[in-house]
Input
Amino acid sequence: MKLQNLSIKRKLMLITMLTSTVALLLFSASFLFYDLISFRHFLSQDLATQAEIIGYNSAAAMAFKDEAAASVTLTALKAKEDITAAILYTPDGKAFTRYVRANLVDPSLNGNQPRFEGIRFRDSHLEVVHAVSLNGEPVGTLFLQSDMSQWYSRAKRYAIFLLVFMLGSDLLALLIASKLQTLISGPILRLEDTMHMVSAQKNYEVRALKFYDDEIGRLIDGFNTMLSEIQQGDSALQSANDALKAQTLELESEILQRKQAQDELLSAKRTAEDASRAKSSFLANMSHELRTPLNAIIGYSEMIEEEIQDTGKFENVQDVKKIQSAGKHLLSLINDVLDLSKIEAGKMGLHLESFDVAQMVQEMVSTFQPTITKNSNTLQVNLAQDLGLMRADVTKVRQILFNLMSNACKFTNNGTVSLDVQRTTKGDREWLKFQVKDTGIGISAEQQKNLFKEFVQADASISRKYGGTGLGLAISYRFAQLMGGHFTAESEPGKGSTFTVHLPSKVSADVVEAVKAKENNGPLAEAPKPATQADTILVIDDDPAVRDLMFRHLVKSGFHVVVAADGEEGLKIAKRIQPRIITLDVLMPGIDGWEVLRRIKADPELAETPVIMVTIVDNEIMGLNLGSSNYVMKPVDRTLLTDLIEKHRKARPSSSSDVPVAV
Amino acid sequence: MKTLRFIAGCLLCVTLATASYAQSPNSSNSSEYLIKAGFTYNFAKLIQWPANAFPQPNSPVIIGIIGNDPFGGTLDEVLAGKNVNGRELVIKHLKWGADLKACNILFVSSSEALHIDEIFHIVKGLPILTIGETPNFARRGGIINFILEDEKVHFEVNVEAAKDADITISSRLLSLARIVPRTVADGSKAQ
Output
């Protein structure tokens, strides 16, 4: 075990013992040394004194040459144990008489007088040479020799005594040290115990006991202070921990609450969505329900008008025309509301196709001529030469222009309505800029703010005066946005308004890619002409009114028409007669129009036959996806339908003009 | 001075030693008296006179010789340059008359054997150390008497006589001497 690792108790004892032993050793040694030196001095002095006495006592004998007397004097030294030899020399250095202790053989004593005076140590012997004189007269010399046995025995005694003394003292020191070391080691051991307790039990409430006000006492004070600090820190940590826990609990409860709120919100959202769905389906139903009677109203009013004109009762024409126009207005309102609700529901799809801009504009403009002349306005159409093709949803572009134009005409009297179309480049894209300008009443700055909001017309009085739902601009605005374009309006009240629409020349299809519509082969600018060749057209519709109207209208337009009341029947007839064109309703009892369309397209004999969907269901994308050629919403715009049929008829020269017609 | 004394001492000792071993009753008179001269000197050193014995503190110790001088000059040789307690030693050859008293040591030669009592009578009560070489000299009232024994010189001391003469003899001298009573003195006186 290393010395440094001894316990403090042992160290203290060791230090005490070492110190006391060394001190004792030094003390004893110096004491012994001093004593032996002084004793030797004393011995030599003593020997000198003895020499003096013996010299004195033997002086007379020497003077009188009385050898016997001198011998007697010397022999008296027998009593002195340590005197080993005494010799008297005559003044001439010869031995006069001698005393030598028994058993002592020292040849050096046999010679003449030693050549020194005084005292000397030789071979652990003390020797003295003393001049003997009688009344100042030298009579001889005395030589005395001591073996210092006294000195040696004294040294031995002292050594033994000191050894015993030292052992005793050490024992005593050990006893005292073992008692007194607790003064120092006791507090330290207690402190150590306390520390063990603290570290083992993590109990910071214990305190080390202080015994004395010394360094260890201060150490203990320091330890206690540290402990209390740790305790404070610990309790602070504990309280912080508790606070954290409490906060966590709070947080958890808050999270729980939020979750509940979220759940509630979710259910509310679901409810709202359900409500929205309900609204959508309601709207869909409503449109269906509204359009069906409108279909009949408009269709039959047209029929009546024609019949009246045929009979020559012109006075009734105006009344019937009023019925017609009211029906058409109602239809456009319904269409607008439906469009808006579709836009809001995000269900407005884009049917992209490439078309000739100039042609489209001219077609649109030609239908406006009556409206222009109604308010005594002049129409100016400025088309740039390089308009070329545009890829967009032509229906929606047309609707935007239609809205703008009809607004311009509506709010202008005796003025000019102009339409400018240009191709511009902005950024790295090509745009088509449509600008509709009028010299009408204009819009105030205040009114412009609400220009594109739904159902808000510039003034409440306006709707009374001019009519309209106020949805036109909002829908146009949304359509332009839908196609990635933008809409601006400038206006000065009393001077007129300018509406500008920028549309990309190639609208990127972020909706379902529309099935490529068939190219427009011929200009549609001219008015529809009656078909010169009777081609068979199959009309599949469950509504007898629709069937009747379609039949009469198409026959009038010069087509040969076959009708079928449901999908099954339609398919059978189609297979048998191989019609030129099929018009197909969607909502029918039995198999619906989608299924019929699917089967037609799956039938190799019928797959090439163009199918025009004529329906209330507003899902043009679906129809085009399934392979229909066109999608016409009810109530049917007869002109549009005639145009479409005409287009398809021309596209494929009739090869079955001799197809038998069956009813 | 010391060396001289030492040499003299050495000489004396040598002579004494040789004398003490080589002396014979009649043959070597001189060596016997050389020893006796040395002894006399030693006596002077080992006795103490009363204060009134000397007129001055540095008065010499006068050694008077009465009768035939047996030393034949050796005493002079031995004592030459010596002193005792700071006193010089002076030798006087005395004649019968009043000046017997004018000395501190009186050596009575053997030639004066018949006049011993007379001499004792003259010096009686005086602090004079009487030394003789006649048999029974001490017993008859002398203080110190040389005797020859085994061819060695010894001496007798009459302590009472010394006391009478107010002379103190060192114990060291007495330890070497033969102490004799004053018995024969009365007898001889009676003779």
About this structure: Residues 3-171 of chain A form a domain with the Beta-Lactamase fold (CATH 3.30.450.20).
